[in-house]
Specification:
This protein is an all-alpha fold and 74 residues long. The protein contains three helices and no strands.
């Protein structure tokens, strides 16, 4: 893997990215299901796992105090 310089990523950035990823996966998994390449149960489980991760990240974001949020958002 290439050696890139670190780019600051906030928790809010992670939440936004995961929301986009979930939306994309819902389309991809539906297409795989309709093509017979993925069962409905497996597609639903994968999406549920991603949504559970999103819920945890959102909880962390909500638990941050205003001072902590300003540290992450700078």
């Amino acid at each position: 893997m290439a050696n890139f310089s670190p780019v600051p990523v906030t928790l809010a950035d992670e939440v936004a990215d995961l929301r986009r990823e979930i939306a994309m996966r819902e389309v991809v998994y539906w297409n795989q299901f309709t093509a017979g390449k993925l069962t409905r149960e497996e597609a639903e489980k994968r999406i549920a796992c991603s949504k559970a991760t999103l819920a945890r990240l959102m909880k962390l974001l909500d638990e941050q105090t205003p001072k902590q949020r300003s540290l992450f958002d700078s």
